[in-house]
Amino acid sequence: SQTIHQWPATLVQPVGSPLSLECTVEGTSNPNLYWYRQAAGRGLQLLFYSVGIGQISSEVPQNLSASRPQDRQFILSSKKLLLSDSGFYLCAWSGGTSEKLFFGSGTQLSVL
Amino acid sequence: TQLLEQSPQFLSIQEGENLTVYCNSSSVFSSLQWYRQEPGEGPVLLVTVVTGGEVKKLKRLTFQFGDARKDSSLHITAAQPGDTGLYLCAGPNTNAGKSTFGDGTTLTVKP
């Protein structure tokens, strides 16, 4: 069966520090991978998605970047965090043309 | 841009009551998905509706897709505290591989 792992679960970082969140998927090949950000109790904003290794599409201009160094690995990064980067970050995958998304357990990021 | 509007934004009811939440759009979607999310966790897929007018049941939850495939509803019968959570609807964007999400309905079921 397919599983998705996302870590860390919580992170507190000072303004101006770097960020690296990692997500890996097991049990499937060539997944579509996504990074979403969610404000408390609200809907999901798509940040990045990837249909293959090295292929990244950015949905909104921001202080973040994403990379996909391996087929089932997706990384969200920042060189210098801003206060506005605080939020709940979710990694997700889908298969082929399926519209069904499977989410990781999320990372609560607090930038202080 | 395809938008999904969910209502109500917040709903607080007593255990045993029935409720309906809505997901509406001015755009046609090829399908709609419903997810439930608990605090501090990722959303979990509940159901996908594909055909206009389709009704799907998942225990006490009934999902309906509008005839024109622009809206959907979720009805919960005899709500339980375990139904508490954020209910999100989503639909595939016109660009393949991406989904549009509504802002969700936060449901609280009090014992």
Description:
- The complex is a heterodimer of chains A (112) and B (111).
- By secondary structure, chain A is mainly β.
- Chain A contains no helices and eleven strands.
- The termini of chain A are far apart.
- With 111 residues, chain B is mainly beta.
- Helices cover 0% and strands 52% of the residues of chain B.
- Chain B contains no helices and eleven strands.
- In chain B, strands 2, 4, 5, 9, 10 and 11 form a six-stranded mixed sheet that branches.
- Chain B is globular.
- In chain B, 35% of the residues are buried.
- Chains A and B meet through strand 5, strand 9 and strand 10 of A and strand 5 and strand 9 of B.
Put the structure in a nutshell.
The complex is a heterodimer of chains A (112) and B (111). Chain A has strands spanning 3-7, 10-13, 19-26, 32-38, 44-52, 55-58, 65-70, 73-78, 87-94, 102-103, 107-111. With 112 residues, chain A is mainly β.
State the end-to-end distance of chain B: 40 Å
Number of helices of chain B: 0
The string of secondary-structure elements of chain B, in order, is EEEEEEEEEEE
Mean pLDDT level of chain A: 93
Low-confidence stretches of chain B: none
Number of strands of chain A: 11
Categorize the overall geometry of chain B.
Answer: globular
Multimerization state: heterodimer
Radius of gyration of chain A: 13 Å
Helix coverage percent of residues of chain B? under 10%
Largest sheet of chain B: 6 strands, mixed
Q: What is the general shape of chain A?
A: globular
Structural category of chain A is mainly beta
Annotation, overall tally of beta strands of chain B: 11
The computed structural class of chain B is mainly beta
Features:
heterodimer; A: 112 residues; mainly beta; 7-stranded mixed beta sheet; 4-stranded antiparallel beta sheet; B: 111 residues; 6-stranded mixed beta sheet
